[in-house]
Design goal:
The complex is a heterodimer of chains A (about 375) and B (about 260).
Chain A (H helix, E strand, L loop, with lengths): L5 H25 L2 H30 L7 H21 L8 H30 L4 H21 L13 H7 L6 H6 L1 H19 L2 H11 L1 H6 L4 H26 L18 H11 L4 H20 L8 H7 L2 H15 L18 H25 L1
Helix pairs in contact in A: 1-8, 2-8, 2-11, 2-12, 2-13, 3-4, 3-5, 3-11, 4-11, 9-11, 12-13, 12-15
Chain B lengths: L8 E10 L2 E11 L4 E5 L6 H8 L7 E6 L2 E2 L5 H7 L1 E3 L12 H7 L9 H6 L2 H20 L15 H13 L5 E5 L7 H18 L2 E5 L3 H7 L2 E6 L2 E6 L1 H6 L1 H8 L2
Parallel strand pairs in B: 3-8, 3-9, 6-7, 7-8
Antiparallel strand pairs in B: 1-2, 1-4, 4-5, 9-10
């Protein structure tokens, strides 16, 4: 089959991105009440879960280092962004959540959130990335816990401080926290951020940087012997990953009325948990950014239906009991994926629009090879 | 061979001890550009340890490594590579989940000059650098007869070709000295012959110095201009292949007395 040219691929992807963005704008302008109350908040949640999973995939799937403190960077981003926007609001820079002044604040919030998380990623990464495997996991796990405690105890953030009183009302009324109307109105912001972040991550992965970090994942000694500065690229990837996690913090601040460190804590049982993000990466496929996107959406939907689906009430009582412990369901989902697709849904492949015409051929060759395997097994059994 | 003033690779009293074990002691070697030198010795003699010292994997406890007369003390592995020493491994270490071409391109990283912004915005600088690197890597693959395998996963190659890919990857670093750690291990005679022609092409074309560890004596005796023999970490003989073959110390080390 003829190979689609690189230019055509870029154009198709650009068109798809524009279409997605246009869709978000249209929904924002015309959406009805179901859209406003149910779907839009979910889309916002999906937006940060997607970027979280994809950015963790840079470290876990492409660099091959297990980090369990990814939500710590998100927390830093969320607090940096909301403190920044609150401060500007108090200074009278903007009064309502619209107009060019607010747009500027929103843009700067994203950048500041990313930058502060990246800085922290750099500081944590330099010492932590000297360790490997389980030890790195423990260090990053510890970091995630430290950051939550740190935020709790800093005088200007946490329970009291800038917001004076409960953080919730302040964030909701003046800061980034969007109401359902605003979430719909600004749905394009979420879409734009996801598109931009995913694009940048793709460009990073499909460049010499991506090649280097995959080389490090595959064989660190050989990578060093090929002239790759292993520790430099490790820290760089960790920092970039933290940058995107910081950006998701702003998205999180936008779609919540209140900020509380407990939502980023390791012990929280919600979908937003460093371990759960790791699960997303593993389910989606380590080394596949599109896999992370798919897994983030699928696991979000699973989580959503377990918590809100009417069909759960129709199930037998014992199953309902199981569903009151969603973590149990995720574990089962993870085990099922590991059993049947050990390398995740996508493996290290990427979904590409231009490859869709090739799918029938791929699928038939997949089943053909499965058939061959089976007949080989049968033959072996017959001989045995 | 006409001796030049500075050898491309030289070691002076190189040695390393792990606790009380003197793995390599007083190792001196001079290799000149375009030369093919063999390093042999019985199992456990310290040959690979010498390679690890020459590539900065181990930090020597004594002595220095000089490249073109410049000492490389205190440098890291990737800096040794930047200076011009490349190696292959005794047990193949490829980037298994990457394609053959990517394996070689990964080793070009230090010669691909664009930054994160170029990569993000896909500037013309990015495309030019990537294209130049791809072309060069395809040439290197052609030297190792792997050009038609460029898009396969490295792990899917048969053993002999994996060995050659390691050599191609080492070539991509633009080295002055190439260290080959048992390149013919586990190869059948046909594959060994192919490898031999590949090594000769490399030497003629790039004029690099090659240091070779090998157990296949016919290969060593055929291609190496000089041979250095080590046993228990100490040099016991060095000289022309015919001299080495007759040297009683070498025979004793290999066969026992």
């Amino acid at each position: 089959m003829k190979q689609t040219s690189i230019k055509a691929r870029y154009l198709v992807n650009l068109a798809a991105a524009l279409l997605l963005f246009a869709l978000a704008v249209v929904i924002g302008m015309t959406g009805g009440s179901t859209m406003k109350l149910k779907i839009t908040p979910s889309l916002w949640q999906c937006s940060y879960l997607i970027i979280m999973a994809a950015s963790l995939n840079l470290v876990l799937g492409f660099l091959g280092q297990l980090s369990l403190g990814h939500c710590g960077f998100m927390a830093v981003g969320a607090y940096a962004a909301s403190l920044f926007s609150l401060a500007l609001q108090r200074a009278g820079f903007y009064t309502e959540k619209s107009g060019p002044a607010f747009m500027l604040v929103l843009l700067l919030s994203f950048l500041i959130a990313g930058a502060s998380a990246a800085l922290l990623g750099l500081l944590v990464g330099i010492p932590a990335l000297r360790l490997k495997g389980d030890y790195l996991a423990i260090i990053t796990l510890g970091f995630g816990m430290i950051i939550v405690n740190l935020i709790n105890n800093l005088p200007f953030c946490g329970q009291q401080g800038l917001s004076q009183g409960s953080a919730s009302s302040a964030l909701y009324a003046t800061g980034l926290g969007f109401s359902n109307d605003e979430k719909m109105q600004y749905l394009w912001v979420a879409a734009l951020v996801v598109i931009l972040c995913m694009t940048v991550m793709f460009m990073f992965v499909r460049s010499k940087y991506g090649r280097c970090i995959r080389a490090i994942r595959d064989n660190e000694i050989a990578a060093a012997a090929s002239g790759i500065n292993v520790s430099y690229y490790k820290v760089m990837t960790f920092t970039i990953s933290a940058f995107f996690a910081g950006i998701t913090g702003t998205l999180y601040a936008c779609c919540n009325a209140s900020l509380s460190t407990t939502s980023f804590a390791f012990t929280n049982g919600s979908i937003l948990n460093s371990v759960f993000i790791v699960v997303m990466v593993v389910v989606g496929g380590m080394g596949s950014l599109t896999g992370s996107v798919i897994a983030a959406v699928v696991l979000f939907l699973l989580n959503y239906t377990i918590k809100n689906g009417a069909w759960v009430a129709a199930l037998p009582a014992f199953l309902q009991n199981v569903f009151t412990y969603p973590m149990l369901v995720y574990s089962i989902a993870l085990i099922v994926v590991i059993m049947f697709r050990p390398r995740g849904i996508m493996g290290s492949r990427e979904f590409a629009l231009c490859d869709i015409p090739k799918w029938p051929a791929w699928i038939s060759s997949y089943f053909a090879s499965r058939g061959l395997e089976k007949s080989a097994k049968k033959e072996a059994a017959n001989h045995g | 061979m006409a001796e030049k003033i500075t050898p491309v690779l030289e070691t002076k009293k190189l040695g390393i001890s792990f606790g009380g074990l003197h793995a390599v002691q007083d190792f001196n070697i001079q290799i000149y550009s375009g030369e093919l030198v063999g390093l042999i010795g019985p199992n456990g003699a310290g040959k690979t340890t010498v390679f690890n010292l020459l590539t900065g994997v181990y930090v020597p406890t004594e002595g220095t490594v000089l490249l073109d007369g410049v000492p490389l003390n205190g440098k890291k592995t990737h800096q040794f590579v930047e200076a011009g020493i490349a190696r292959t491994f005794q047990n193949i270490r490829l980037f298994n989940d990457m394609t053959v071409l990517e394996n070689v391109k990964a080793a070009c990283t230090k010669d691909i000059h664009y930054n994160l912004l170029d990569a993000t915005f896909r500037t013309s600088k990015f495309w030019r650098a990537e294209k130049a690197s791809t072309d060069r890597c395809m040439e290197l693959l052609a030297i190792c007869h792997l050009e038609d395998k460029a898009d396969l996963l490295a792990s899917s190659l048969p053993y002999g070709q994996q060995r050659k890919l390691e050599i191609a990857r080492a070539l991509a670093t633009n080295m002055k000295v190439l260290l080959l750690d048992e390149p013919a291990a586990g190869m059948n005679p046909t594959e060994t012959a192919e490898l031999l022609s590949c090594i000769n092409t490399i030497r003629d074309r790039f004029g690099v110095a090659i240091l070779l560890i090998e157990h296949d004596m016919s290969l060593v005796m055929n291609v190496c201009e000089r041979i250095q023999v080590i046993d228990y970490g100490q040099t016991i003989a060095s000289g022309l292949p015919e001299e080495i073959a007759k040297n009683p110390k070498v025979i004793a080390a290999y066969l026992g007395e």
